[in-house]
Structures are given as structure tokens and as C-alpha cells.
Write a structure and sequence with these properties.
Length: 206
């Protein structure tokens, strides 16, 4: 599985831009910001777990019209998710490498970008502590991949380069192996725990 992820990363961020350049213009953006997270199904107390998010991305026009407001967005990012359960003094911290893939619509002379898509992610580290003591059983309960986080974002550029972005993300599939407890999403058989977060970031477009 790790080899598959590495191959996908190489294809996305080394081969794709050169291929796309033969068909049309693409851009590059760097971003960094803060996540506010919870995990639905673990009895956490709202968006009480902060985490960092940073990465790079590119976008390119859909279709032959290079000035089309519709663009494909592909990113590579490190993101920290998780939750804090106050009554149990329990912190869950999940670190992922994710590849958001979104379709965007640009307006206001490309100042405002609205985008939606998915952000498949590989969990590089999970750490659960209760009252300051690491919980090994919980650590092993998280899936290596979060396959289907639904992602929605809005970015506004104040200048040609500098902007700010707000993003919402929700895991459509459970991120835990043990699905006997927790909550469910969309249908009752899809039961377990689900990453739920909002994030804000500064962006710089080259």
C-alpha cells in the first residue's frame, strides 16, 4: 500500500504538470494554516483539537478554453486531525499525508475560488493519550487510509499572490477498524468514527 501511495504522489506532482502544460496553463500554490477538529463517534466535545495543515497544489483549466472558470485542483498536504474528550481527558492526534482532488469554479476575476472534491489520505502517525498516558489499543484501531474525505473550500485572493482559504472536510468512511461502536454516516452499516474538521489557511500563488 505504501508503494502505491508513493507512486501516486510521484505521478501527481512530477509527471502531471508537464503533461498538462502541453494542453494549457497551470498554476502553483503553497498554503499553511490551522485545523480545528473533532472525531464524530468518539464523544468528543466539538472542534476542540487544533492541528496544522500545510502543502502545495496546482490547478489547470478544464476543457480547451484556458480562461475557463472551471479548473481541476490537485494538492499534496500534511494535515493533523483528531479530537479531545474533556470528560475522559483523552486526546486523539492523527497525522496524514493527503492528496485533495477537487473541481473548482473561479469568479470575481479569479479572486474567488469555490471548490469541492475528495482528499484521500494516508495516516503516517496516530497517538492517543488518556490523562497523559498513551493508549496502545486505541493507537492500533485507526485505519492506515482515510479513503473518502469529502472536501469543500473557498479561497479569496487579496492580491495576485496572497490569499486566505476556509475549508470543511468530513470522512465519508469510518477511520477506525472497530466499527462496533460509534456513530454512522449516510447509512447504518457505515458505522465507526469519522474525521470532521474546519480549517483556515494563508495561500500564496506563484
Amino acid at each position: 500500500m505504501k508503494k502505491t501511495l508513493i507512486a501516486l504522489l510521484i505521478f501527481t506532482f512530477y509527471l502531471s504538470p508537464f503533461t498538462l502544460n502541453a494542453q494549457g496553463r497551470f498554476d502553483a500554490t503553497a498554503f499553511a494554516g490551522l485545523n480545528m477538529c473533532q472525531i464524530d463517534g468518539d464523544q468528543s466535545d466539538g472542534y476542540s483539537h487544533p492541528g496544522l495543515r500545510a502543502g502545495v497544489g496546482t490547478s489547470f483549466a478544464l476543457g480547451k478554453d484556458l480562461d475557463s472558470p472551471w479548473r481541476m485542483v490537485i494538492e499534496l498536504a500534511f494535515t493533523n486531525k483528531g479530537s479531545y474528550i474533556k470528560k475522559a481527558d483523552q486526546t486523539m492526534s492523527l497525522s496524514y499525508i493527503e492528496i485533495p482532488i477537487m473541481v473548482s469554479y473561479n469568479t470575481l476575476e479569479y479572486r474567488l475560488r469555490i471548490a469541492a472534491g475528495i482528499a484521500p489520505a494516508y495516516c503516517v502517525k496516530s497517538k492517543v493519550t488518556t490523562a497523559g498516558v498513551e493508549d496502545a489499543d486505541w493507537n492500533q484501531n485507526f485505519n492506515s487510509f482515510d479513503w473518502l474525505p469529502l472536501t469543500f473550500s473557498a479561497r479569496y485572493r487579496f492580491t495576485d499572490h496572497l490569499g486566505i482559504e476556509a475549508r470543511y472536510q468530513y470522512s465519508a468512511l469510518s477511520v477506525t477498524k472497530n466499527t462496533g461502536s460509534g456513530t454512522y454516516f449516510l447509512f447504518r452499516s457505515n458505522k465507526g468514527c469519522f474525521n470532521n474538521l474546519v480549517s483556515f489557511a494563508l495561500t500564496y500563488t506563484f
